[in-house]
Amino acid sequence: MAKKLSSKLLIEFNPKLPKLSKSESKVLQLLIEAGKLIVPIYKQQENQKFPGANFYPRDATKEEISKVASKAPQILSPYTVVERANGKLVAVPYHIKYADLLKPIVAKLEEAANITENKEFGKTLLIQAKALLSGSYEKTTAAWLNMKPYVLDISIGPNDYFDDQLLFTKNSYQAWVGTLDSEGTDRLNNYKNTILSVRREGLIPTERVSNHDKIKAKVIDTILFSGLMAKTKFPGVNYPINVEIVEKYGSEITLFNQPNDLMMQKEIIPTFNKIFPKEFREEYSFEDLSRGNLRHVAMHELAHSYLYYRHASDNLKDLFRPIYELAATILGFRMAGSLLLKDRITNKQLESMIVTLLCRSFYLVKNRRFANKSLPEYTLGAIIFINFLLKSGALKDLKGMTILNFTKIFVALQDLFHILERLLSSGRREEAAVFIERYLN
Ligand SMILES: [Zn+2]
């Protein structure tokens, strides 16, 4: 499925494209070129040897950075590089630091904006281009969230923070380009509407930000992932991440067909063959599992919309993301349960979701030395998940083979989610640490 894996900072896929007009094809080509130009910027940011990547001076400690930041908040902005000038820490905005590398990207986006016959898309591309050179990211987020669905799709800019393992704030540049899968998008929106029609009170409602009238969802046939996206290879995302921005403008869930196929081939199927006995494996086709994987990713992303707890990130600090991500996965399964109750999915489909999640979790745990470096949050979540199921008796290890009981898993997930939501709504970092410690081994 992946055409080229030579550079891991750029992945190109080869999806079947919908019928495009001449000008649309030309615009798409420019978007692809713009997306590829993210790679040199990302190269300057990433550095797996240091928890703070290249976002902070090597000799600066967490304590020094935090202390300076209390008087100069720009130091901890997601969009600045911290440098040392005459011994003092200073924040340099991304759009200034990387201006030379951003200009050719902006030129491509502007050219695309001039050619496109979709006026709204053109206008939004111009807002996006401007943001890259001026730092007006909030305005861009609002503009993209306002746009009507369109066949061409791009996301480009400093949009996620997995590489900052020191202070968990700095965003990395990334891009995806693709075309809208309208059938898949309709299906996803049907699930979304069914799920969101079930009212769910948060544990502490005043602590929770609700944006349910402002959640968009789409499925994309993916042409390229570059920068951080090429490293994470997520089959789904829910952006923006910042709770205040979500409260103001809403959020959008995006699922990616070809990256899902890639994850199936590289991670899910090999693990499936390794951990489950033959009789069990024979019950599931590739199609069952591939759909199951994309469905549990979809549920995970939808579940995020129920878990925007205002103070969670400040309270849980470095342990926020692992707790938050695992909570979304577990709540996702409870929400899939409501689809089952309404006969929107079958038992078999729900089981396929569990099976693929288990495969993904075992994969992360088995490859933890490698995976730890790029996605420690998910690896930690996977370890907790598997150990929780083993300790609760929902999962058994029989001579290296995994034996599972779906009913027991559902009961166990109920308990696990209760703990995680408590931590998100009102937990302190020390409590999260005690919980994690209990399930590490
Ligand atoms: Zn997530």
Automatic annotation (TrEMBL):
UniProt-recorded name of the protein: Peptidase family M49
GO molecular function: dipeptidyl-peptidase activity; metal ion binding
A GO term from the CC aspect: cytoplasm
UniProt keyword Lipoprotein, yes or no: no
Organism from which the protein derives: Candidatus Daviesbacteria bacterium RIFCSPHIGHO2_01_FULL_40_11
Presence of the UniProt keyword Ligase in the record: no
Keywords: Hydrolase, Metal-binding
